[in-house]
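Listing S7. Sequence submitted for prediction.
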Amino acid sequence: MIYRLLALNIDGTLLQSNGKLHKSTKEAVEYVQEKGIYVTLVTSRNFSSAKKVAKALKLDSILVTHRGAYISDTLNEPVLARRIPEEITFEIVRFLESFQCQIRIVHEKYSLANKLKLNNNLLAKTIVNSGDPLFYPQQFVDSVSDTIMEDPTSPPNIEVYFEENRDASDARKAIVSMFSEVDVSQKDDYRLDIVPQGASKLNGLLYLGEKLGIKRNEMVAIGDSIDDLELIDGVGLGVAMGNSPVELKQAADWITRSNNQQGVGYMVKEHFRKQQPIEFLKKMKIIK
């Protein structure tokens, strides 16, 4: 099979545990681009944060961000922007405020979160090291619901970080049963991602594929977490990082090394070196 698009998750895939890009990963992305393969990022991160990573990789691509809810290569002219309605955003926030959690309204231009002293040190570190660029405004308030009551917002997604994993599970079940307007993904034991109904990493990538004229069986996707499962299972070649959970590895067509062992670079060298450049394949009339 000839592949024409490479979709990459960011955290745990492109980035090492220290949050940095390895030189070999940058070289691998450049190598794939030189073969004429479209490289994009498919991530739960907000657009500004993903754009920062894309810049470091020298990518000038349309990015699938906010877990598929915001697809764009610029901040002000999205290709697709799905949003949670203002009234539903308010109702969900009011419900979540009954839990011990941090609620983060994630707009493409800013974030709004409640002030919360986190007892879970690992969780606190995860939130602080979100990778948001300096020019991405972040506001912390005493009450998110009071703030958005005065100034309503319709965000692409809401991130929720819980102190207790049982609360995360209970909240997810309740939101799914109460709000048909959204989809909820449990990224890990302590975090929920809430997006507009129908938004997902896979649907976002398929939408981009339609725009580019690339079929799903011509796509390669590399991911590392359980929220990449649908994506990995839904493209032509699904690749799980070595640091992925068992469920993702079982669903994948290929398993590469971990993010700290430059798994993206290893996969690219092992697979794409066998594929001729896209322009050559077109010239030989092997593909259109």
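Caption to Listing S7: primary sequence and predicted structure tokens for the chain studied. The CA atoms of residues 107 and 155 lie 5 Å apart. The first strand starts at residue 5 and ends at 8.
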